[in-house]
Design brief:
Layout (H helix, E strand, L loop, with lengths): L25 H10 L9 H17 L3 H10 L3 E3 L5 E3 L9 E5 L11 E7 L6 H11 L3 E6 L12 E9 L10 E4 L2 H9 L4 E4 L5
Parallel strand pairs: 7-8
Antiparallel strand pairs: 1-2, 3-4, 4-6, 5-6
């Protein structure tokens, strides 16, 4: 399936790429994320129109979309600048809060696939952090994530990553899936894959 976009789907604040004409399937999402071809992702025309309207409202009231998002996600204090626009006051010391919430303007994906954003107050995001957060928020679900490289980040001052997820396929209730594991990491992967029982083993290869 071809996902048409005449230019890179990423643009910095104030620059928007044309919408996509076809949604991504789960298999295509995984392929794109694993290959690092993030420029292929984008929004539908309907969502893009809503996004443009939102940006117009936000830029009428705030110095930038970053100020609005920082306040909306972490409730950081707002003050007004000389022009009467709101700007956020970034705390001198940031805490270790993580906020997992739906992307208000999700990328164009097939029905049943959810697009959330994991926000990090202090900017710490890595594989271990994401796995831990997902084990709390969407245990037992398929997910794939990516953190935009610096040149693609529209909100560079607040650490965040994009999470696509979907429920596991329904299994036969009369079948019990038992998986041998040899570490905490393999146990997490087994649970994410739908295991019902775990057996602790050693020297697995």
């Amino acid at each position: 399936m071809t996902h048409r976009s005449s230019e890179e789907n990423f643009r910095r604040e104030g620059q928007l790429a044309p919408p996509l004409t076809q949604p991504f399937s789960w298999e295509e999402l995984v392929e794109v994320v694993e290959a690092g071809e993030l420029e292929r992702l984008g929004r539908s025309k309907e969502i893009m129109d809503k996004y443009r309207a939102w940006r117009e409202r936000v830029t009428f009231l705030y110095e930038s979309t970053t100020d609005h998002i920082a306040n909306a996600v972490f409730a950081w204090k707002l003050v007004q600048n000389a022009k009467g626009l709101f700007k956020v006051v970034f705390p001198e010391e940031r805490g270790d809060r993580y906020v997992f919430r739906p992307n208000s303007f999700p990328y164009f994906v097939e029905e049943g696939i959810q697009h959330h954003v994991l926000w990090s107050e202090n900017g710490t995001l890595n594989k271990d952090v994401v796995e831990h957060q997902m084990s709390m928020h969407i245990p037992g679900h398929h997910y794939v994530y990516f953190i935009n490289p610096p040149h693609r980040q529209t909100i560079p001052s607040i650490g965040h990553c994009h999470i696509f997820w979907k429920p596991l396929e329904k299994r036969n209730p009369h079948i019990t899936v038992e998986v041998c594991v040899d570490s905490v990491a393999s146990a997490r992967e087994a649970i994410q894959g739908g295991a019902h029982r775990l057996e602790l083993c050693s020297a697995l290869s």
